[in-house]
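REQUEST
  id: r-88c1
  op: predict_structure
  target: Class I SAM-dependent methyltransferase
  payload:
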Amino acid sequence: MGAPLGQLTRGTTGYNRLRRSDRWLVHSARVRTAVGSATDPLVVDLGYGALPVTTLELASRLRSIRPDVRVVGLEIHPERVDAARPSATAGVDFALGGFELAGLNPVLVRAFNVLRQYPVEAVADAWSAMQRRLAPGGLILDGTCDELGRRCAWVLLDAEAPVSLTLACDPFAIERPSDLAERLPKVLIHHNVPGQPIHALLVAADRAWASVAGHGVFGPRVRWRAMLGLLREQGRPVEPPRRRIRDGVLTVPWDHIAPAGAPLG
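RESPONSE
  id: r-88c1
  status: 200
  body:
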């Protein structure tokens, strides 16, 4: 395959840092269908960092969908791969690779806190490289989060285009929804300015959050759900929350927040 496609990233990671995106993955109907119906349930965790812990956690959680899921953690730095290989278990392996996905054809790719460290101009080519390698019906999760995984955002893509944006958080760890703006994926973070759809969504979420402040007496999770309900009443295509949910999650179709005048999406 030649040299891996990409550049070395900082490699910071930690136990349970990606738990919110993992929980979303295992409850997403589209992801469950893609992984559950795959002939070969191969998943790639791209850019797992200096420690392999989040790859192992991802495999464990995805087994609730497919007990026979196979997860390959890819890193661009050979030393990180060598350090991770002793942690390999049944159904989990580690290899050298970048956006070319080491020639694999996975049904799901998770690339978290990777493109965040690239220039925005590199996003389109990175997405395209990964999309070309997907198995039929495959999906990509391009996301970012803070160091403790309490504030997260990610874009879900299929082989053709972005599908949706999700904001996720510990509702106890924010003052308002727009606190998540600092964790927007690279493709969106520079578009969080007046006149752009993502900015309008965050402004609307903040206003709805303030309007349902009375629900805060029951806790921030109840307040978050009330905010989502108000946004839907206002015509925002917000995905209804699951009945039982620990996280504050807001998911909208990509075309609702696609950057105006940008080539992506």
